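Reopening: structure tokens for the zinc ion complex, inputs below.
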Amino acid sequence: MAFVETRDFIQVTANNGKTNFSYIFEGNEDERLFNSKIHKSKMKYYIKEAVNEFEEWNKKGYGIYFLPNGGGYKNDEITEFRACFIDMDIKDEIEHEFVAAGFTGTPNELHELVKSKFYSLNNTEQLNYKQIFRCRVSELKKRGIPSSAIVETKNGFHVYYLLNNDTQRHQFETLEGFLIYIFNADMAVKNPARLLRVPDTIHLKDSNDPFTIKLEEWNRSIRYDSEDLIVRLRKVVEKVHAQKDSLLCVNSRKAPTHNTKLLSKKNGLPLRVGIDYSSMTIGNIPLISKGFEGLSELKRRLGLDNQDDLCYIDRDDIRQFLKKQNLKQLLGVEADRFYCIFHNSTNSTSGNIYPFDDKWFYKCHSSRCGVHYDIVQTIERITRLPIHKAFDYLKELYNIAEIKTDWQLDQERLIEFNIEFLERFKYDVDLQENYPYLTKFLKTKGTLGLLIQIHEVARRKLPQLAKMRNMDSSNAIVFAPMRKVIEELLSENSDIRNINKANTKVVIMIFMYLLNCVGIDQLPDEMQRRIEQYQKESRKNSNIHYNNIARYYEIVSMDTERLILAEEMSKFFYQNHLTILNFNREQLISLCGVEEGNRVFPDRSDEEIPGLNQSISQEIKRVVNKLIQVKGWTYDHEVIENIDISDFDMKQRYKDSFKYIPKKKSVELDSLTVLDNDVGFQKWRYGFLAKKLAMNIPAIISNQEYRKARVNKLLRKQFDIPIHIKGFVYHQEISEQGIQLEDKASHILRLKQHDLSLSNAKIASIVGCSRQYVSNILKCRD
Ligand SMILES: [Zn+2]
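Re-run output (same inputs, fresh job):
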């Protein structure tokens, strides 16, 4: 009879058919070390032949096991959860007795104590323990949850509850947690790939006292829907808590940490398992998990109902306010350390809420999870609300009103209009024709995008500015520290050259009146304080060696008056051969005077131009003038070759240029001799002078009324320019007579170069040719 029942039990529980059996050596500890391998049988039915095999392995000292769940052999591989099970063991009871009696030693001491008590038990005492176990199983049965199978082992019982075949992993895990708590069962026996003993085989761990495993009860018709079983076990746990005399749930240290549930597939997230906060028994957490539905009750509990609204302008301030709220009080947690609420922790001290400075934080100390949250993130996860709704939830909870000042609303509209207008430069042909030079500038790579981004940053900073005193009364202005803006735009690790280039573009925008520069002393006090702090921090990090580190700009209205001015400045920029690469303060001052230099670079108004630069400028001017006076024209290479700056120790400057290269010691460099024909030095010197020339030439051309142009037939003829000279040359104005010699194509190009706004039709009428010819020539030029 036993054989038939066991066969049925194994086949129903394991696989409705064949299964592998596992053989694990059970000798003393030393022997076990040499026989640690688990032997697996072939897939087989539980038949007489299998039983014979078990006897042979038993004789060799092996215990016989089977795997109730299926889908694989490792915990992660298991996909079929056919039963949940627990292992009640006398040692667990003894341990609980010691702890309940107030044991305070180390886990090792406890272990030794349990072992010695266990081995001193006599038969009657052992049977008494087993009797307690039986009572527990039947108490749960009386509460409407009978077991499917009870297997008696040497020191206790395995109890099984068969599950429907749609059971999910998280349900299995939740059930194991509940059952272990209810039965004070072995915490280790809960893994999906758990091997359990086969009835009617022999337990051999104590070879002097072998024990035959017995199937004590078996009822294949008792089977549970997992979700239903979870609900029923949860009710049992709740009821038992209220009853003192129950044998169930005796060991609070085994209370299940958190239940999980299958989260629905939404917001583009896959189906996945998460903590079920609605069933959590901690303070306000189930209420918080209801989201807005539970909000009024939560406010009542926290005493936050019937309070006046707090008004805030800046969302960042709201965030700061929220972070100061007592997180322990909000969640209703009393203990300092507890099971982390964001993962299924086995450590009762993993979760921790603590105040730091005047703010509160949640920290998990488990390496598996390790979250570190502020109040907003904590609420986001418990409510599972989208980011903005979670924020609204907290605002409502703490009676916070987010308001906008009139100034802020006005500025938002201005920025919005500006951005819309700037976007039109991308496609609006009429606009491009109205402002051809400005269009040319804005269309240089990334420039328009940069200007729009500056507006976006300004928009983001509006709330911060809105709450500053004095802003309301001032003109409509917005500030942003430009270096920070540029770094943000170009991403943290973009190279310094790109930052410099963007910075220069922004300076040119000031020059063109597309932005205003504001001196720090004109800013509200609060902002000046912030700048001070920002500069202090930057100096601490010492990665920036600029003095224009916190230049502040004001967003201006892109109205027609301003754009006319912007177009004029753009025209000036291009007609004077200014470029983004050569634009700087010295050049601006020599072209437009000190006043203009101070408008664009107000923070550098006290700065003197370095002596070296002044002398080099003088020398370049001298060389260019001399060469053009002698033969009417010159070009870069010739100018550079003729520059004489022997007064300056160029070699020392060359050596100095190495000082910023890490690992090169300045002492070594100083003692280094640079030869005149040193190729590196020659190259550096040429490059140095070429840069200075590019910087100085626009002012020279402008002041002397020279021209800069690509060599063409007319110029070659006029000035006798040798054929090997190509590219740009600087030259005197060509006489009327000369222009007559100019061919039509050059004439067209010259006209367009001089004035971008000239239409093709206008050019055609001046030159005396067809419009088609003009458009062909201009196309070739590109
Ligand atoms: Zn955690």
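The radius of gyration is 42 Å. The mean pLDDT is 84. Marking as resolved unless the reporter disagrees.
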